[in-house]
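W.,

You were right to be curious about this one. When I first looked at the sequence I had no strong expectations either way, so I just let the prediction run and decided to look at it fresh. Below is the sequence, 123 residues in total, followed by the output.
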Amino acid sequence: MPATRRAPDATTSKPLKPAVFHILLALAQRDNYGYALMQAVREASDGHVPLRPGSFYRHLAKLMDDGLVGEASARRAGDDPRRGAYYRLTPRGHSVLADERRRLAALVAAIDGLGLVPRKGHA
C-alpha cells in the first residue's frame, strides 16, 4: 500500500521569487516599513533584485493575503510618525522561509555532491 503524501502547500510547492525571498529575509531580521524594506532588499541582493514601489507593494499585498506577512502593531521608539505601516513576518512566513532554506541547501548539497571543481578563470 503506497504511503499517502501531504498535499504541497501552494506557497511552498515551488521556489520563491527572488523579490519575495528577499522581502521575507529582510522581515526575518526585523519588522520594518515599506521604504526601508525596499532598501534592505537592494542592499542584501547587491542591487540584483530591483524593486520599484509598484512591484514591491504588489508582492507585499500578496504576501499579506497569503498570511506570510502582517502589519506590526508597535512602532519603534522615537520613529518618525510620518512613516507608514510597519510589517512583520508571521509564523507562517517564518515556516515558508525555513522551507526555502531547506530547498536551497538541498540544491547546494546536490551541486557539491557532483564534485565539480571550478576551472581556472571560471568561478
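Here's what jumped out at me. The first strand starts at residue 32 and ends at 33. And, maybe more interesting for your project: Residues 1-12 have pLDDT under 50 and may be disordered.

Coffee later to discuss?

I.
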